[in-house]
Structure to design on (576 residues):
């Protein structure tokens, strides 16, 4: 549990973070989104005391962060940055084992942990353990960066635009890996990004920031459905908002049972997002799709007409409420 | 020709050939000079004596190395420590001052330092050591600063964020990454000082400069040539050794 209560940070005359209160429950993935210079990175760096905050209080599990020794505090918090920050003169294995060694784990335990992490991140030990950072691709280097942050199994993971420098394909792959990992590890993650799609995809809790203040926070779906003002709406993609919302739900959550009608020609796996379903309708010039399970057996139907009716009812309910 | 071919091929044993070759030539010159009587007679036909004999070349070489070694050791310690000190948080205020002081040290000609040092320190080895220290400080300090400041800010931030102490960051991250640049500064400093140390002969610090000064005073070109030859071979030996270290270091950090 990370709690910020009325936290401010001033650099000279400028206020980078202005009276922010935010609470991140344990095991939740919180994304801070905003334009450059909105104070999101500053917030991250205050949590592990890379910079001191000027006002307010930051607590970890109820303890104010000033009560910890800063070095010990940082060893308990994983940290990933965009430039990876890998040590260029150390091998991959040595980079990953850094924090466990700082914590004076016995050598065998460090080695076992390094090998375990390399396995998790798809970096074969024989091939990568002795490579140096400059011999890695951007995606591989960032995997090592995340592995290093997780090495001592910290409860908290701070990530500062970790995938910002990667090409779109690699970025997407690493996002998927992070999602899968988070589903297993349940770390408390604070993730800074300016990429709203990335934030929508990864976060349980979304915080939109502007000029050092929180404009709106809530679940991705809640923000998409009810953006507070024009700024949040434009951050969420303006007219694209409908599709972004569709990207957050699965086809199988919107399908109807197979009717007596002739089955639709195009098939879509139920795990695909609704956005992918809509895209497939556009591509195949149809308004119905047959939903199939993993072994390609039809399990339902996705109908555009039904979707629109569903959305209308939802809206009606909201207006009435 | 042979040497350049060898240095291009990075075989470990082969690379030792270059410094060993220069060292062998240096040894040959030190011990074989006296047998080159005929050659030096041809250089200086009118001289009464053509082989410098007031002290053995081995003695002169030893004293030359001592002066350069002592000055170098002090300069390395002072230069590197000062470079580290002024890049820490507590010493940052002195960063510009340190750079300026070292620059002054190098713009001040060693001859002038000698002239000023002799009245204070007397004749002998001490004034030349002081002159070499002042003269050799700049390359080391400047390169230490450049090396430490050249360490990527993201790398340093990551080190801090991972929970390394300031001391661990210095020893495990900053110094290893800056080492090639610092070593290049030490190499420049020492190589220049091997040549500059010859000036010591003018203030009574007997070393490989002796034959040169004596040769100039007595218009004996054979003496001058003997001193110059030995100093050049010594400089080449030491420089090629540094080259070897640098290659090893570069290989380690970029492998």
């Amino acid at each position: 549990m990370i709690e910020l209560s009325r936290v401010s940070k001033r650099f000279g005359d400028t206020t980078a973070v202005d009276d922010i209160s935010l609470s991140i429950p344990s095991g939740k993935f919180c994304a801070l989104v905003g334009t450059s210079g909105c104070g999101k990175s500053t917030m991250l760096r205050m949590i592990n005391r890379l910079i001191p905050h000027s006002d307010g209080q930051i607590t970890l599990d109820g303890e104010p962060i000033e009560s910890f020794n800063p070095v010990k505090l940082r060893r308990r918090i994983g940290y990933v940055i965009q430039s990876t920050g890998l040590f260029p003169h150390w091998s991959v294995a040595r980079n990953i084992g850094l924090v466990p060694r700082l914590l004076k784990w016995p050598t065998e335990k460090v080695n076992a942990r390094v090998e375990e992490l390399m396995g998790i991140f798809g970096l074969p030990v024989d091939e990568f353990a002795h490579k140096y950072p400059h011999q890695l691709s951007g995606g591989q280097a960032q995997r090592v960066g995340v592995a290093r942050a997780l090495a001592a199994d910290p409860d908290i993971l701070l990530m500062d635009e970790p995938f910002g420098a990667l090409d779109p394909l690699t970025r997407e792959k690493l996002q998927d890996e992070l999602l899968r990992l988070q589903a297993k590890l349940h770390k408390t993650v604070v993730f800074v990004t300016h990429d709203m799609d990335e934030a929508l995809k990864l976060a349980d809790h979304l915080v939109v920031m502007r000029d050092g203040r929180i404009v709106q926070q809530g679940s991705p779906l809640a923000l998409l459905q009810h953006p507070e003002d024009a700024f949040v709406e434009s951050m969420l993609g303006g007219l694209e908002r409908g599709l972004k919302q569709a990207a957050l739900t699965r086809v199988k959550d919107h399908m109807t049972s197979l009717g007596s009608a002739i089955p639709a020609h195009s098939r879509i796996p139920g795990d695909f997002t609704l956005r992918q379903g809509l895209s497939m309708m556009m591509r195949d010039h149809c308004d119905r799709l047959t939903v199939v399970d993993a072994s390609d057996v039809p399990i339902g139907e996705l109908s555009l007409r039904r979707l629109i009716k569903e959305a209308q009812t939802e809206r009606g309910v909201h207006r009435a409420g | 020709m042979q040497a350049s071919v060898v240095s291009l091929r990075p075989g470990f044993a082969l690379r030792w050939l270059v410094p060993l070759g220069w060292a062998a030539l240096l040894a040959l010159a030190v011990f074989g000079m006296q047998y080159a009587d005929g050659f030096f007679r041809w250089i200086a036909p009118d001289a009464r004596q053509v082989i410098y004999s007031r002290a053995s070349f081995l003695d002169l070489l030893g004293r030359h190395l001592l002066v350069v070694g002592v000055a170098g050791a002090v300069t390395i310690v002072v230069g590197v420590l000062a470079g580290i000190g002024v890049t820490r948080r507590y010493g940052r205020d002195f960063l510009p001052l340190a750079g300026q002081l070292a620059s002054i040290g190098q713009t001040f000609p060693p001859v002038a330092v000698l002239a000023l040092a002799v009245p204070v320190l007397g004749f002998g080895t001490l004034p030349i050591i002081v002159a070499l220290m002042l003269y050799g400080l700049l390359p080391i300090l400047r390169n230490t600063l450049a090396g430490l400041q050249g360490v990527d800010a993201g790398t340093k931030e990551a080190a801090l964020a991972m929970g390394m102490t300031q001391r661990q960051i210095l020893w495990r991250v900053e110094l290893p990454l800056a080492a090639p640049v610092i070593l290049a500064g030490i190499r420049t400093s020492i190589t220049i000082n091997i040549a500059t140390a010859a000036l010591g002969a003018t203030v009574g610090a007997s070393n490989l400069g002796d034959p040169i000064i004596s040769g100039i005073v007595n218009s004996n070109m054979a003496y001058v040539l003997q001193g110059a030859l030995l100093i050049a071979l010594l400089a080449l030996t030491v420089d090629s050794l540094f080259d070897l270290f640098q290659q090893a270091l570069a290989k380690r950090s970029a492998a």
